Amino acid sequence: MSIEQAGKLIAEARSALFITGAGISAASGIPTYRGVGGLYGDRVTDEGMRIEEALSGPVFRRSPELTWKYIHQIEQACRGAAPNAAHRVLARIEERLSRSWVLTQNVDGFHRAAGSRNVIDIHGDIHRLLCTSCTFTEVVEDYAHLDPCPRCTECEKVLRPDVVLFGEMLPRAKIERLQRELERGFDVLVSVGTSSLFPYIAEPMIEAARRGVPTIEVNPEPTVVSHAVALRLPMGAVEALEGIWRVVESKPARA
User: Are residues 153 and 108 in the same domain?
Assistant: First the structure.
């Protein structure tokens, strides 16, 4: 199966869903494995807990300064990174198709920064800060100016990134948006740079494949959806999507 075939499927589609994970941001210098394991591997934190525990909802509610300590470390490791060519391709495809959406697990905000408008950032965006008590929100470029455990300028309560911490529920509004778009249907679904470990990431691909909808996976390594997809491109996101775009832009746009 080839990039040419993938590009042809997308060029002929009126609608597409792209499901992205850490692999699409790897070329931007963002650590893979949920943005955590690339930094910590199997090591425990200074407090003797797994990083996933330190970055969990229960620990944040109990000891927000501890969770913020590791949020700061991760943000600093990623600071200065920018969208790459793969993100820009998805923005161009959105402009070309009648309807194109990105469902991303990434919290780096790169899809919107690259120009995509139809984005369901199911795990949130690290650049948005929320007050844990009042309605205050703030969008920041980075955390360089933030205190170790930042507080709201209006009520003095602790701020938090607008992200889903481990052990927390997914945002209802985003789940409902995803469900509405899936119910409308897509002509093609493409998984890019994700191991598809979460059910809400894997199931759209598996269900589409079951119904005979064209499905494409871009990932150097096999994943839990590899057995189901119609077309698999075992390569990195930038190489695959740049190649796909060259095919797409060479075809006449659908009326």
Answer: no
